[in-house]
Amino acid sequence: MEQPCNTFLRTGMPLPEMSSPEILSPEMQAPEIHQIWQCLHQIADPELPVLSITDLGMIRAVTPMQNGWRVTFTPTYSGCPATEYLINAIQETLTQAGFAPVDIEVNLTPAWTTDWMNADAKQRLREFGIAPPQGLACEKPAELEPILCPRCGSHTTEKISEFGSTACKALYRCQQCLEPFDYFKCI
Protein backbone atom coordinates (compact mmCIF):
# COMPACT_ATOMS: atom_id res chain seq x y z
CA MET A 1 0.00 0.00 0.00
CA GLU A 2 1.42 3.39 -0.99
CA GLN A 3 2.09 5.81 1.87
CA PRO A 4 0.62 9.32 1.65
CA CYS A 5 3.11 11.93 0.55
CA ASN A 6 3.17 14.30 3.51
CA THR A 7 6.52 15.97 3.06
CA PHE A 8 9.49 15.82 0.75
CA LEU A 9 13.12 16.28 1.65
CA ARG A 10 15.44 18.22 -0.61
CA THR A 11 16.14 14.96 -2.40
CA GLY A 12 12.47 14.47 -3.24
CA MET A 13 12.16 11.38 -1.06
CA PRO A 14 9.11 11.20 1.22
CA LEU A 15 9.61 11.38 4.96
CA PRO A 16 7.79 9.04 7.33
CA GLU A 17 4.14 9.88 7.84
CA MET A 18 3.46 12.93 10.01
CA SER A 19 2.03 12.43 13.48
CA SER A 20 -1.27 14.03 12.41
CA PRO A 21 -1.99 12.93 8.82
CA GLU A 22 -5.63 13.97 9.19
CA ILE A 23 -4.56 17.61 8.75
CA LEU A 24 -3.99 16.91 5.06
CA SER A 25 -6.84 17.77 2.77
CA PRO A 26 -7.05 15.95 -0.60
CA GLU A 27 -5.88 19.06 -2.46
CA MET A 28 -2.62 19.17 -0.45
CA GLN A 29 -0.91 16.24 -2.13
CA ALA A 30 2.34 15.67 -4.02
CA PRO A 31 1.50 17.65 -7.21
CA GLU A 32 1.31 20.88 -5.20
CA ILE A 33 4.52 20.06 -3.37
CA HIS A 34 6.24 19.62 -6.72
CA GLN A 35 4.79 22.97 -7.89
CA ILE A 36 6.19 24.62 -4.77
CA TRP A 37 9.63 23.12 -5.49
CA GLN A 38 9.39 24.53 -9.03
CA CYS A 39 8.57 27.98 -7.62
CA LEU A 40 11.48 27.76 -5.18
CA HIS A 41 13.79 26.79 -8.05
CA GLN A 42 13.10 30.23 -9.58
CA ILE A 43 14.68 32.05 -6.60
CA ALA A 44 18.29 32.88 -7.45
CA ASP A 45 21.00 33.08 -4.83
CA PRO A 46 21.96 36.79 -4.62
CA GLU A 47 25.72 36.05 -4.51
CA LEU A 48 25.59 33.38 -7.24
CA PRO A 49 22.75 34.42 -9.56
CA VAL A 50 23.38 31.46 -11.90
CA LEU A 51 22.22 29.14 -9.09
CA SER A 52 18.88 28.83 -7.36
CA ILE A 53 18.35 28.14 -3.69
CA THR A 54 17.28 24.61 -4.64
CA ASP A 55 20.44 24.09 -6.73
CA LEU A 56 22.44 24.94 -3.63
CA GLY A 57 20.37 22.59 -1.46
CA MET A 58 19.21 25.37 0.85
CA ILE A 59 15.61 24.10 0.87
CA ARG A 60 15.49 21.12 3.19
CA ALA A 61 11.78 20.27 3.13
CA VAL A 62 8.35 21.39 1.97
CA THR A 63 5.61 20.29 4.35
CA PRO A 64 1.84 20.79 4.07
CA MET A 65 0.25 22.35 7.16
CA GLN A 66 -3.42 22.54 8.12
CA ASN A 67 -3.92 25.89 6.36
CA GLY A 68 -0.78 26.36 4.31
CA TRP A 69 2.81 25.25 3.94
CA ARG A 70 6.05 25.05 5.88
CA VAL A 71 9.34 25.49 4.03
CA THR A 72 12.45 24.39 5.91
CA PHE A 73 15.38 26.53 4.81
CA THR A 74 19.09 26.36 5.69
CA PRO A 75 21.24 29.37 4.72
CA THR A 76 24.76 28.69 3.50
CA TYR A 77 26.09 29.87 6.86
CA SER A 78 24.48 31.13 10.06
CA GLY A 79 25.59 34.75 9.57
CA CYS A 80 24.73 34.91 5.87
CA PRO A 81 23.68 38.51 5.08
CA ALA A 82 21.25 37.24 2.43
CA THR A 83 19.18 35.15 4.88
CA GLU A 84 16.49 37.79 5.46
CA TYR A 85 16.34 38.58 1.74
CA LEU A 86 15.88 34.88 0.89
CA ILE A 87 13.21 34.36 3.56
CA ASN A 88 11.28 37.30 2.07
CA ALA A 89 11.82 35.98 -1.47
CA ILE A 90 10.48 32.54 -0.50
CA GLN A 91 7.47 34.10 1.23
CA GLU A 92 6.71 36.45 -1.69
CA THR A 93 7.25 33.85 -4.43
CA LEU A 94 5.00 31.24 -2.84
CA THR A 95 2.33 33.77 -1.85
CA GLN A 96 2.18 35.13 -5.41
CA ALA A 97 1.88 31.55 -6.71
CA GLY A 98 -1.14 30.98 -4.44
CA PHE A 99 0.52 28.88 -1.73
CA ALA A 100 -0.22 31.13 1.25
CA PRO A 101 0.11 31.12 4.14
CA VAL A 102 3.75 30.06 4.22
CA ASP A 103 5.74 29.42 7.38
CA ILE A 104 9.51 29.59 6.84
CA GLU A 105 11.49 27.51 9.31
CA VAL A 106 15.18 28.43 9.40
CA ASN A 107 17.09 25.30 10.34
CA LEU A 108 20.79 25.69 11.14
CA THR A 109 21.35 22.07 12.24
CA PRO A 110 22.87 20.36 10.48
CA ALA A 111 24.77 23.25 8.95
CA TRP A 112 24.64 23.72 5.18
CA THR A 113 27.37 21.97 3.22
CA THR A 114 28.57 22.12 -0.38
CA ASP A 115 27.76 18.41 -0.47
CA TRP A 116 24.11 19.48 -0.89
CA MET A 117 24.80 21.22 -4.21
CA ASN A 118 23.52 19.25 -7.18
CA ALA A 119 25.75 18.24 -10.11
CA ASP A 120 24.03 20.68 -12.48
CA ALA A 121 24.81 23.53 -10.08
CA LYS A 122 28.49 22.60 -10.04
CA GLN A 123 28.56 22.57 -13.84
CA ARG A 124 26.89 26.00 -14.03
CA LEU A 125 29.42 27.38 -11.54
CA ARG A 126 32.22 26.16 -13.82
CA GLU A 127 30.55 27.77 -16.85
CA PHE A 128 30.20 31.00 -14.83
CA GLY A 129 33.97 31.00 -14.18
CA ILE A 130 33.98 29.68 -10.61
CA ALA A 131 35.68 26.36 -9.88
CA PRO A 132 33.09 24.20 -8.09
CA PRO A 133 33.86 22.29 -4.90
CA GLN A 134 35.97 19.20 -5.53
CA GLY A 135 35.19 16.15 -3.44
CA LEU A 136 33.11 16.12 -0.30
CA ALA A 137 33.30 18.48 2.67
CA CYS A 138 34.21 15.61 4.98
CA GLU A 139 37.17 14.75 2.74
CA LYS A 140 39.31 17.85 3.34
CA PRO A 141 42.41 16.23 1.73
CA ALA A 142 40.61 16.66 -1.63
CA GLU A 143 41.64 20.33 -1.46
CA LEU A 144 45.27 19.21 -1.63
CA GLU A 145 44.61 18.02 -5.18
CA PRO A 146 45.09 20.62 -7.93
CA ILE A 147 42.00 22.74 -8.52
CA LEU A 148 40.75 22.58 -12.11
CA CYS A 149 40.69 25.95 -13.92
CA PRO A 150 37.07 26.68 -14.94
CA ARG A 151 38.22 28.59 -18.03
CA CYS A 152 40.78 26.34 -19.75
CA GLY A 153 40.51 23.08 -17.77
CA SER A 154 44.16 23.05 -16.66
CA HIS A 155 45.21 21.37 -13.42
CA THR A 156 48.24 23.67 -13.08
CA THR A 157 46.72 26.21 -10.73
CA GLU A 158 47.94 27.97 -7.60
CA LYS A 159 46.17 29.40 -4.58
CA ILE A 160 46.66 33.16 -4.29
CA SER A 161 44.50 33.73 -1.21
CA GLU A 162 42.50 31.56 1.18
CA PHE A 163 39.61 34.00 0.71
CA GLY A 164 38.16 35.18 -2.59
CA SER A 165 35.13 37.37 -3.29
CA THR A 166 33.35 35.75 -0.32
CA ALA A 167 34.54 33.74 2.69
CA CYS A 168 33.36 30.47 1.10
CA LYS A 169 35.64 30.96 -1.90
CA ALA A 170 39.42 30.94 -2.31
CA LEU A 171 41.23 32.92 -4.97
CA TYR A 172 43.29 30.90 -7.46
CA ARG A 173 45.26 31.63 -10.62
CA CYS A 174 45.71 29.32 -13.57
CA GLN A 175 49.35 28.94 -14.59
CA GLN A 176 48.27 27.91 -18.10
CA CYS A 177 45.88 30.71 -19.15
CA LEU A 178 47.08 33.09 -16.36
CA GLU A 179 43.48 33.98 -15.41
CA PRO A 180 42.50 34.40 -11.75
CA PHE A 181 39.36 32.58 -10.59
CA ASP A 182 37.36 31.81 -7.47
CA TYR A 183 37.25 28.27 -6.10
CA PHE A 184 34.12 27.41 -4.11
CA LYS A 185 35.62 25.66 -1.07
CA CYS A 186 34.23 22.40 0.30
CA ILE A 187 32.35 23.33 3.46
TrEMBL record:
Q: Which InterPro entries match?
A: Fe-S_Maturation_MIP18, FSCA_dom_sf, MIP18-like, PaaD-like, Zn_ribbon_PaaD
Q: Name one Pfam family in it.
A: Zn_ribbon_PaaD
Name the source's superkingdom: Bacteria
Q: Where is the PaaD zinc beta ribbon domain?
A: 145-185
* MIP18 family-like domain boundaries: 35-95
PANTHER family according to UniProt? 1,2-PHENYLACETYL-COA EPOXIDASE, SUBUNIT D-RELATED (PTHR42831:SF3), FE-S PROTEIN MATURATION AUXILIARY FACTOR YITW (PTHR42831)
In Swiss-Prot or TrEMBL terms, this protein is called Phenylacetate-CoA oxygenase subunit PaaJ
The organism is: Xenorhabdus beddingii
